[in-house]
Amino acid sequence: MSSRTPALRRRPARVIPSVLVCLAILAPAGYLVWAIVVRLGQGRWPALIADGAPAVLGAPLSDPAVLTVAVVSIVVGIVLVLCAVVPGRHRVSALQVPIDVYDGENETVLTHRGLAHIVSARTSRLDGVDSANAAATDRRVRLTVDSPLTDTSEVADQARTAAESAVQSIPFTRTPAVTVRPGRNRR
Questions:
Q1: Are residues 177 and 114 part of one domain?
Q2: Non-local CB neighbours of 29 within 8 Å, separated by 6+ positions
Q3: Are 80 and 131 contained in the same domain?
Q4: CB count in 10 Å sphere of residue 147
Q5: Which of 19, 25, 27, 178 is deepest in the core (most CB within 10 A)?
Q6: Is residue 3 part of a domain?
């Protein structure tokens, strides 16, 4: 059994949908390439194609429309293969943990969703706040605070202080900035 744990900074898995779409496009394209090779080798289209699309088959291979469709299919296929292979962005933020805790072999992270829940929970308990919604990235926490009060500037300042306090209490390797947008409930 390996003593090494997997990295927690996983990237979103987009492989399965991308591969399915890629196969859905590349399978007909591969069949068409095979049909073109048969056409060039034998001088006639395979029976399955010849019976199904006589108008399309009358077009020469040097026709600009045929070349355009071929180039677009190739570009779309390459983009889809790159989408399947290249991973997405990280959705977690790394935390600073003393090296003696894990001997430097493990990584500690906090998901952006978890950080948003922490900030919105901390600010929704404030006096004058009706609801608080947060969205977080590596660089920024955006907080929307709704209040039934007419003057929301004081509530926004309190929410900003509470949100910054919540973010500062977490030992991030890169601390995100907090922005607060006050709103007013019209009930």
A1: yes
A2: 73, 77
A3: no
A4: 23
A5: 178
A6: no
